[in-house]
């Protein structure tokens, strides 16, 4: 039998080339912070993040060309630059739960002690993710059964340099999105439109009269949401939109009509004493109250079952991943060799194990000295954290190898970790007065970050494997990136939270995490679950209703029920805008199908469109962060021009212009590609 041909990367192991340089590291760290902050903003608003691999690759390549950087420097920069998105995902899924649950509320959230604790949580989880990946890299990355689709695409970007001609689209899109966001803040146009349509009264056979109506609205004028919808595509955007229809079109009017005018009168007292149940504004306020107090709780119950279903559907992959994790761990020592090629050198096993021990000690310090649990609980928490972080980092890497990091179910893994940790700690005797909720959220946060970083790191190491990168250098760069991003990310959350609080005072809503602009759906779910496990406090009738509804969707064969309930949870304008973005991508797909594009043209359309959409997301997110900083200092752009009645039609016109260019630019770029 002929011996299998040895894999040869783009840059061979014997080639000496610049890779881990100061310029590549600094560019990567800046990208890590910037893209991480942008994803934090997006995730808190839209409940999802987007992979930073492609933007990091494009921006890193563009900047390094000024310094005549090598392909390995570009690979190193992309690796460091993309880790911030993973830290951001772990942060937004869990840390706002400390605010929402009341553990860190008010000035406590902004305190130095909370900042240190949160940074330790993020850094501990991130380090564990990198270290566990370093242990398992060779077995995962070299497995030919794992296609690593996004890693292959990232490597192709570096190899072909096709993004060099498209990087201008990303930067132009960022500028356009930033200008639109600023114009919206200046009230040059209305960013949202909502109204209430009241229906005529209906008398039932039982003699009861029902009154009510429908809450109407349009898409938020948000380039970022359009970009999200474009990236996830028409099918997933439609599923997300179906949740909006179910929530606002079915549940809200149904519950509102049953509750009736007495409920409307009770709600309007808290808002405006001069409103009566005959006022459309009173009915609109009542509809929003029904949605916030009831429908969102139903959505949380649905998300819980949807997360479990996601993991169940992946049970074969998860089981294989767990088996591989234990098998690969046992082979680590066998794989160690003194004479290893450059492209196969990982961090030394001794350093890795020492780092894992340090992470365990940090977890003990957090749970015992900061959250004030018992010694037994702190020991159990540290042990559970190490085991779950290892398992979920390995499973996350395996799933990324199959479906890519964009589809990695990190939130589902985190919910599982939270429930397992919560039940174990309750058995150890924790209560709400002994740091139980904080300890559960802290462990879940560490595991969440480890899983997110683990998946992203496996993806980047696979791309590096194809290009000929040096694993230990990439791993070291990611450790530095984890530390820097971990120190910055909680500051980003503080800025966004405080800015929204000030904005809420200015515009008449209760700001902070959980508000309409920053709903933080995953963190809200984590907070409710943690408190429910420890305190037994949950509106079970509504939660169970959501669970049953999700079970019905599963029986009907719905493939992504989580998106439906996220759509039910998020604001009407947000989901509409995401749906419009998905429709734009669907229109583009129709054009490419009718024109019968070849594979090269289809790849160009896909890459160019993703770059433009990513630019729209990053541009709005970064300006949104800047606006939050201004709001903290009581500087509001809306007061500058004193425009009292801006037109929503101008905003719709902006959406149409963005839609035109989201279709036109990829098609124009593809037309230049030869067969």
Bin the helical content. over 70%
Approximate strand percentage: under 5%
- Biggest sheet, in brief? 2 strands, antiparallel
Distance between the termini: 38 Å
Compute the average pLDDT: 83
What does this structure look like?
This protein has 675 residues and is mainly α. The chain contains 21 helices and two strands. Helix 3 packs antiparallel against helix 14 and helix 6 packs across helix 14. The longest helix is centred in the middle third of the chain and has 47 residues.
Give keywords.
21 helices; 72% helix; two-stranded antiparallel ribbon; 675 residues; mainly alpha; single chain
Short note summarizing the structure:
The protein is 72% helix and 3% strand. With 675 residues, it is mainly α. Strands 1-2 form a two-stranded antiparallel sheet.
Task: Outline the fold blueprint.
Blueprint: H1 22-46, H2 53-65, H3 71-94, H4 96-100, H5 112-141, H6 149-160, H7 167-185, E1 194-203, E2 209-217, H8 223-269, H9 280-313, H10 315-335, H11 349-370, H12 375-403, H13 410-427, H14 436-467, H15 471-507, H16 521-535, H17 540-555, H18 561-569, H19 572-594, H20 599-632, H21 648-671
């Amino acid at each position: 039998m002929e011996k299998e041909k040895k894999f040869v990367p783009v840059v061979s192991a014997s080639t000496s080339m610049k890779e881990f340089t100061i310029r590549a590291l600094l560019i990567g760290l800046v990208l890590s912070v910037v893209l991480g902050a942008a994803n934090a903003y997006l995730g808190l608003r839209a409940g999802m993040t987007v992979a930073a691999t492609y933007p990091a690759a494009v921006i890193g390549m563009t900047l390094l060309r000024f310094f005549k950087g090598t392909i390995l420097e570009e690979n190193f920069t992309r690796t460091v630059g993309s880790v911030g998105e993973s830290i951001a995902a772990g942060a937004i899924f869990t840390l706002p739960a400390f605010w929402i649950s009341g553990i860190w509320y008010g000035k406590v959230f902004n305190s130095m002690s909370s900042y240190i604790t949160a940074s330790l949580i993020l850094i501990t989880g991130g380090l564990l993710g990198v270290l566990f990946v370093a242990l398992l890299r060779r077995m995962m990355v070299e497995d030919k059964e794992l296609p690593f689709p996004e890693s292959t695409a990232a490597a192709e970007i570096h190899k072909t340099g096709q993004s060099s001609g498209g990087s201008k689209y990303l930067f132009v899109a960022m500028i356009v999105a930033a200008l639109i966001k600023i114009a919206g803040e200046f009230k040059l146009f209305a960013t949202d439109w909502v109204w209430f349509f009241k229906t005529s009264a209906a008398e039932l056979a039982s003699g009861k009269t029902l009154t009510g109506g429908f809450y109407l609205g349009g898409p938020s004028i948000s380039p970022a949401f359009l970009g999200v919808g474009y990236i996830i595509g028409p099918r997933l955007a439609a599923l997300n939109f179906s949740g909006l229809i179910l929530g606002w079109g079915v549940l809200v009017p149904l519950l509102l009509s049953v509750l009736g005018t007495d409920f409307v009168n009770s709600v309007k007292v808290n808002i405006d004493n001069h409103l009566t149940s005959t006022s459309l504004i009173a009915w609109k306020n009542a509809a929003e109250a029904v949605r916030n107090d009831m429908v969102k709780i139903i959505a949380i119950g649905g998300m819980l079952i949807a997360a479990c279903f996601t993991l169940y559907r992946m049970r074969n992959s998860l089981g294989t991943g767990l088996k591989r994790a234990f098998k690969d761990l046992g082979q680590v020592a066998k794989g160690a060799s003194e004479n290893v090629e450059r492209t196969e050198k990982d961090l030394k096993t001794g350093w890795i194990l020492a780092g894992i021990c340090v992470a365990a000690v940090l977890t003990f310090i957090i749970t015992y000295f900061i959250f004030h649990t018992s010694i037994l609980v702190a020991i159990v928490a540290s042990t559970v954290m190490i085991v779950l972080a290892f398992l979920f980092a390995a499973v996350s890497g395996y799933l990324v190898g199959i479906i890519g990091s964009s589809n990695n179910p990190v939130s589902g893994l985190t919910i599982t970790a939270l429930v397992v940790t919560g039940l174990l700690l309750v058995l150890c005797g924790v209560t709400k007065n002994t740091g139980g909720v904080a300890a559960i959220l802290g462990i879940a946060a560490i595991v969440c970050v480890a899983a997110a970083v683990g998946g992203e790191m496996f993806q980047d190491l696979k791309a590096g494997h194809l290009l000929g990168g040096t694993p230990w250098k990439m791993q070291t760069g990611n450790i530095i990136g984890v530390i820097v991003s971990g120190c910055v990310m909680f500051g980003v959350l503080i800025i966004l939270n405080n800015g929204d609080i000030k904005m809420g005072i200015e515009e008449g809503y209760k700001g902070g995490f959980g508000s309409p602009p920053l709903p933080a759906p995953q963190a809200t779910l984590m907070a409710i679950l943690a408190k429910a496990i420890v305190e037994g406090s949950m509106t079970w009738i509504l939660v169970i209703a959501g669970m049953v509804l999700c079970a019905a969707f599963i029986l009907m064969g719905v493939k992504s029920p989580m998106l439906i309930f996220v759509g039910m949870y998020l604001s009407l304008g947000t989901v509409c805008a995401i749906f419009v973005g998905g429709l734009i991508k669907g229109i583009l797909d129709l054009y490419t199908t009718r024109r019968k594009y070849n594979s090269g043209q289809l790849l160009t359309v896909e890459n160019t469109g993703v770059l433009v959409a990513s630019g729209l997301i990053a541009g709005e997110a970064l300006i949104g962060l800047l606006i939050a900083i201004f709001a903290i200092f009581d500087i509001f752009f809306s007061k500058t021009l004193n425009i009292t009645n801006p037109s929503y039609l101008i905003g719709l016109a902006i959406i149409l212009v963005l839609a035109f260019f989201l279709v036109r630019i990829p098609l124009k770029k593809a037309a230049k590609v030869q067969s």
